[in-house]
Design brief:
The protein has 459 residues and is an alpha/beta fold. It has a domain at 92-109 and 225-430: Rossmann fold (3-Layer(aba) Sandwich). The chain is built from 19 helices and 15 strands. The strands form four sheets. A six-stranded mixed sheet has the order 3-4-14-9-10-13, with helices on both faces. Strands 8-5-6-7-15 form a five-stranded parallel sheet, sandwiched between helices. The protein has a two-stranded antiparallel sheet with strand order 1-2. β5 (134-139), α6 (143-152) and β6 (158-165) form a beta-alpha-beta unit. α4 (70-81) packs across α5 (112-130), α5 runs parallel beside α6 (143-152) and α15 packs across α16 (382-391). It is globular and about 60 Å long. 49% of the residues are buried. The mean pLDDT is 95. Bound molecules: pyridoxal-5'-phosphate. Pyridoxal-5'-phosphate binds at residues 110, 112, 143, 221, 255-261, 309-310, 383, 406-407.
């Protein structure tokens, strides 16, 4: 079976799955999507009894085609989720009237591990076949850097260089990155801000001879595989809730930043997952919740909140959704995105009844964390609490709600202390980091300095 990937902007010949994996952003500046979405409705009953890795192989199979054999896919998926500390991989718990799908049992305790553990193994697999090498470069303000590092640590053919702003990420987040001592992991503390890191990253990727000479790659949230691996847990969570409630379908609440997690939910619904509605939840950085309530996508200023991984005003995966919203018309996507680049604003036609949306502000988050702990003895992290707060407004007697829990609360101790008055959330993995050795190189936020370091490291 041949599956092809196309660009949302229509300016690229279709590519295979392995090409899509290595490409990241489409060559015409758009985002990659499968040319057709498989309909899996007749298969759901056969999938209900599968464990998480087996379900992952089934859900991803039609998107991969000849890109992997069945045995290769099963092996990659098993190895990717063997690093999770929960036996079920994604436990789904009843907390009061709602359900919580814990996506945070991977090595860095945030949901990004679900995709990045798989993507790291996939990169290694294709590089072994081609004999090639890959040098991943990223700039992080916190969570993504450590998940990417853990995705590729120790992998053959891959080096990873992650820049973080020196002294401007939380000490815990810094240790999650710099305590990884594998020879292929290179942490760079840049003497500057996160924006300096982003700027230098862009400059390095725009140096095409350098990019080519060193096979540079990115692991940011536009890579199709990150969406693909996340589709799985929408099926998984729906099945687990159906088992317990007998409900014909569920709704899923998703705390959202870059629209990556919830776009995977959109794909799951299009495939036929038993989901009636996606509840999109933002913090005060509410470009997406405003879009789904008004139809206007307009950029505001970023404000810092208790849920920093959602402090985003331009959602890098939004263009994928826009492509479907305008009837799979790439010319229309180009027009709207060009308008957005010029005016920081676009308006999409119609409305989409699949989505409900709202904003969970700081007061909501603190209240929800407090009440959930008080009433049920369960501690929510501040990102998950945004989802739970918004989900409260959209209860449906016919469809139970499952909220995606995107991080372990111990990662965000300051918010927990604010909400509960004490530092109650701990995790042995994080506690153990305190006295582990670290490795990190401090460099100025300049293209030449970073490129020099990369050259010297790879020489
Ligand atoms: C990245 C992240 C999010 C947002 O996910 P998107 O795919 O960007 O919408 C939410 N919560 C946590 C803890 C994250 O790390």
């Amino acid at each position: 079976m041949e599956i092809r990937y196309i660009s949302t902007r229509g300016g690229m010949a279709p590519v295979s799955f392995p090409e899509a994996v290595m490409m990241g952003l489409a060559d015409d500046g758009g985002l990659l999507l499968p040319a057709a979405i498989p309909d899996v409705r007749t298969r759901l009953d056969g999938w209900r009894g599968l464990d998480y890795p087996a379900l992952a192989a089934e859900v991803m199979r039609p998107f991969i085609g000849d890109g992997l054999t069945d045995a290769e896919l099963k092996d990659l998926v098993r190895r990717s989720y063997a690093t999770f500390t929960a036996q079920e991989v994604v436990p789904v718990l009843a907390v009061g009237d709602t359900f919580i799908a814990e996506l945070f049992h991977g090595p860095t305790l945030a949901f990004k591990d679900i995709a990045l553990q798989f993507l790291g193994n996939l990169f290694e697999h294709y590089l072994k076949k081609s004999g090639g090498t890959l040098n991943i470069i990223g700039a992080t303000s916190g969570d993504t850097g450590s998940a990417a590092i853990y995705g590729v640590r120790g992998k053959a053919g891959i080096h990873i260089f992650i820049m973080h702003p020196q002294g401007r990420v939380s000490p815990l987040q810094e240790r999650q990155m710099t305590c990884v001592l594998d020879a292929n992991v290179h942490n760079i503390a840049i003497a500057g801000t996160f924006d300096d890191g982003q700027r230098v990253l862009k400059e390095i990727f725009n140096d095409l001879p350098f990019k080519k000479r060193y096979n540079l790659g990115a692991v940011n949230s536009v890579n199709w595989v990150r969406v693909l691996a996340q589709i799985v847990y929408y099926f998984w969570a729906a099945f687990r809730v159906q088992e317990r409630t007998g409900a014909p379908a569920v709704q899923v609440a998703v705390p959202t930043g870059n629209f990556g997690d919830i776009f995977a939910g959109y794909m799951a619904v299009r495939m036929g997952a038993p989901i009636t509605r996606l509840i999109l939840a933002t913090n005060e950085n509410d470009i997406l919740s405003r879009f789904f309530t008004t139809g206007e996508y307009s950029m505001g200023a970023v404000v810092p909140t208790l849920s920093p991984s959602m402090d985003i005003q331009v959602a890098s995966n939004f263009e994928r959704y826009l492509y479907y919203r305008v009837g799979q018309d790439p010319a229309r996507v180009c027009e709207l995105m060009a308008g957005f680049a010029a005016t920081k604003k676009l308006t999409a036609p119609g409305a989409d009844p699949l989505f409900a949306a709202g904003c969970g502000g700081t007061a909501d988050v603190l209240r929800v964390i407090h009440d959930c702990h008080h009433e049920h003895g369960y501690i929510l992290d501040p990102h998950t609490a945004v989802g739970v707060a918004v989900a409260e407004r959209f209860a449906d007697p016919a469809a139970p709600t499952v909220c995606l829990a995107t991080a372990h609360p111990a990662k965000f101790a300051d918010a927990i202390v604010q909400a509960l008055g004490a530092d109650l959330a701990h995790h042995p993995i994080l506690d153990a980091l305190v006295d582990q050795p670290t490795r990190c190189t401090v460099l100025p936020p300049e293209q030449g300095a970073i490129q020099g370091f990369i050259r010297q490291t790879l020489a």
